[in-house]
């Protein structure tokens, strides 16, 4: 029988907190059970296994990150929106490293859970919406989305492992990276699709 008060949401939050403390790859069902003060078996009434828990953590994190980005970018466009979007992304990665990792890791997630989770869909809408203010249309929109994701994730991933060992601070470089991205987005090269390669 499930422990009173224990829910899939509580198990997921406990797993997410643990992931932020020790890293997503180090989270085990036993550690989550200890954190909640229950026996391991009690968890399985709420989540199927560790893979299911990681999928739930990824969806929780996607929702949290998307809400933060939506709040930061509300009413903004162009460079203001780009900077707010990027700063919210980076701050979330700093504050919740384990959860952030879950949003960037290929994880098999129950399709029913994905269908109920607004975070991933909202993230796509926010990103494409922000880029449309630069006058981009397909296929350039998708290429620009991939550029931003690669840049933001690459920067925060290197920053997380101390990859910027230089007297110039990461923040100084971050500001210049965003300046450069804004300039590129304003002067996006025309699509060459259909031309011989």
Question: Could you describe the 3D structure shown?
Answer:
It contains ten helices and no strands. With 197 residues, the protein is mostly helical. It has helices at residues 8-22, 29-36, 40-43, 50-73, 78-95, 97-103, 111-116, 118-132, 140-160, 170-186. The model has no long low-confidence stretch (mean pLDDT 92).
Helix content range = 55-70%
Q: Indicate the overall shape.
A: globular
Taking all residues together, what is the mean pLDDT? 92
Topology as a string of helices (H) and strands (E):
HHHHHHHHHH
Number of strands: 0
Structural class: mainly alpha
Helix count, per DSSP?
10
Which residues form runs of ≥5 with pLDDT under 50?
A: none
How many strands, what sense, and barrel or not for the largest sheet?
Answer: none
CA-atom Rg in angstroms? 19 Å
What's the end-to-end separation, in Å? Answer: 63 Å
What is the strand content? under 5%
